[in-house]
Every structure is written in C-alpha cells, then in structure tokens.
Specification:
By secondary structure, this protein is mostly helical. Helix content is 89%, strand content 0%. The longest helix is centred in the N-terminal third of the chain and has 48 residues, at 2-49.
C-alpha cells in the first residue's frame, strides 16, 4: 500500500505541474487573443472602408478556425470522458466480481482492492485536473499562431 500511496502523490504532483503549465498557456492565449482581435478589427475596418481591397480570406477564416478549434476541443473532451467512463466501468466490474464471486475476501484481497481503488481514484482526479489543458490546447495553438502570423 505504501508504493500505491507514493505513486498517487507522484501522479498528483505531475498533474499539478500540468495545471501550472495550463495557466501559463492560458495567459499566452489571452495575450495572443488581444493582439489578434486588434489586428482583425483593423482588417474588418479596412474591408468596410475599401471593399474591393478587403482581406476576405482572413475574415472568412475567422469563423472557420473557431469551428475547427471547437471541434478539436470537443473531441479531446469526449476522448477524456470516454477513458474515464471505461475506467469506472472496469472498476465496477472488478468490484462486483469480488463482492459476488462466492468467496469471502481475505486481508490480501482487501489490501489489493484498496491499492486498486487508490490508483483508480488518483487517475480520475488527475484526468480531471488535465481536462482544462486538453480543452485549452487547440485554442492556444490557434490563437498564438494567429498572433505570430498577423504581427508580421
């Protein structure tokens, strides 16, 4: 049980570090979004004032990239949710097999069960902690790429 506890602490520390990186990426996304919005307001204003010279590829791309980013966010979240549900279903199956297997549980069985549930609980918590980063990743990628491209 000692090793399971150490593994749990290590996984939680890793997930905490990942959350800190997500916070940095969130700040980068916000900064990039500000510069992208500023550049695109100018592009839309220019297209309004000089319709024949408007950058309509950029204007149309604004909508398309958001749809693509949201699609990627949804796919990442659906995959994460599916993995978590499969893990929970496996834990339930294992527990049911033990409880209704027709034999009493010994101390070793209970110890293994506790380790298994500690590992499962840790996975559920760390996957939940990782979810924000998974959702932010496509948005961060697009916003920072746009900021670099539009600043040139």
């Amino acid at each position: 049980m000692m090793i399971a506890g150490l593994n749990a602490w290590a996984e939680l520390a890793k997930a905490t570090s990942t959350m800190m990186k997500t916070n940095i990426r969130l700040n980068e996304t916000m900064a990039a979004s500000g510069s992208v919005i500023e550049a695109r307001i100018k592009i839309m204003g220019d297209a309004t004032r000089y319709p024949a010279q408007g950058d309509y590829a950029e204007i149309v791309g604004m909508v398309q990239e958001k749809v693509e980013a949201i699609t990627k966010v949804n796919a990442a979240l659906a995959e994460q949710w599916s993995v978590m549900l499969a893990d929970a279903a496996e834990q339930t199956r294992h527990f049911s097999h033990l409880m209704f297997g027709g034999k009493p549980l010994g101390i070793g069985d209970m110890s293994r069960l506790a380790e298994r549930w500690l590992a499962h609980g840790t996975r559920m918590v760390t996957r939940t902690m990782d979810t924000g980063g998974l959702a932010l990743a496509p948005v961060h990628q697009q916003a920072t790429a746009n900021a670099r491209r539009l600043s040139e």
